[in-house]
Amino acid sequence: MTEFFADIPKLAYQGADATDAFAFRHYNPDEMVLGRRMEDHLRFAVCYWHSFAWPGGDPFGGQTFQRPWFGDTMDHARLKADTAFEMFRILGVPFFCFHDADVRPEGASFAETTRNLEEITEYFAAKMEESGPKLLWGTANLFSNRRYMAGAATNPDPDIFAYAAATVKTCMDATHRLGGANYVLWGGREGYETLLNTDLTREMEQMGRFLSMVVDYKHKIGFKGTILVEPKPQEPTKHQYDYDVATCYGFLQRFGLEKEVKLNIEQGHAILAGHSFEHELALAASLGVLGSIDMNRNDYQCGWDTDHFPNNVPEVALAYYEVLRAGGFTTGGTNFDAKLRRQSLDAEDLILAHAGAMDVCARGLKAAAAMLEDGKLEAARAARYAGWDRPEVQAMLGSDLESVAADVLARGLDPQPVSGRQERLENLVNRFV
Ligand code: XUL
Ligand code: CO
């Protein structure tokens, strides 16, 4: 037992009318939703970086959080792990996620940094055996250290490419050792600030090679998890090569990786790309690359990645509707890539932020499941495209422009538009959310 969460009880489901702040009102792990336990649908993960490594800075001020585990020694890293696993137990989350930089101090050399990671990996392994939470994914931080200011895989300096590749190897080893369900790559600085000093042809080729090397290594070590890429536009470099789902899919296809790599899709990143979260999820599902989600909420007024905890049930419901339509998660899950506001200083803030977010997701999931079970939305969609089911229409797709034109003339065709019935469908959705 660490001191940090000492006064906080383990949370339990108490039903929608519960008044206790430290309770779940909607997240009931064993409740069956569409034939699957709610816990197994949502597959919640706490992220290490925002909850345990982020000091609370913003562009005008630095650290606001004072945590006993902030510091650069392995003792700090172990205290951080003790506290993190205590929080996983209080929340009852089945998974967690981390970057190497979140969990171990950087050493004086690559070898020492690797030893630190290996040591903390064994520390995690022992804790995971004791208290259960599994690893949803591991990843490498290839963006914070100044060596990565011009990118990792896309860096003009081949030594930095090499350093990044070696680092990813150590992080894949750690993820494999801990039985991770996925391995994530976010192109933290894979993009550019100005074309004046950038050879984008080279940079994209480097990135394609890097990702291919990751996939080869996965097969070499027998890692059974999924390799995921996380799209995000504009931030931190102005032009990111992994802008959104469509861009990432084109990139994967170009390097022959679309069957090997899936996507980790984040709400805030979707919003920054000018999309809705459900658009990104539906597109990924349609392209066969929906892997996992980073759940949060982006502020609609700020132009940067604000990583709020999710609290908008209707939006979350539409997101899980797409996840459920795609058949639900396999190796993926719901990672809270979300951070406290910087004035939320207390231990209980961390717990209640996650508890509230878990309830919001549970409500969203239940609403999405009810919408699917009701079936009216899917029936309306099917009816809208019903014309395409006729055999002569399918034959048209196999013909050519001249034959189609001749057929239009022969039939004296004068097609009349029909209503898209958007408001009717929106009203339908509002009955569930
Ligand atoms: C950054 C972000 C990352 C990735 C993992 O915006 O979302 O935390 O999820 O590197
Ligand atoms: Co993320």
Q: In sequence order, what are the helices and strands, one letter per element?
A: EEHEHHEHHEHEEHEEHEHHEHEHHHHH
DSSP helix fraction: 40-55%
* Count of DSSP-assigned helices: 16
Radius of gyration: 24 Å
Integer count of domains: 2
Cofactors and ligands present?
D-xylulose, cobalt (II) ion
Termini, distance in Å?
39 Å
> What is the name of the CATH topology of the largest domain?
TIM Barrel
**Total beta strand runs:** 12
Q: If you average the pLDDT, what whole number results?
A: 97
Write out the CATH superfamily name of the largest domain: Divalent-metal-dependent TIM barrel enzymes
Largest sheet: 8 strands, parallel, barrel
How much of the sequence is in beta strands? 5-15%
CATH class descriptor name of the largest domain: Alpha Beta
Structural class: alpha/beta
Q: Architecture of the largest domain in CATH? A: Alpha-Beta Barrel
Biggest β-sheet: strands ordered side by side in the sheet: 3-4-5-6-8-10-11-12
Could you name the ranges where pLDDT drops below 50 across 5 or more consecutive residues? none
Shape: globular
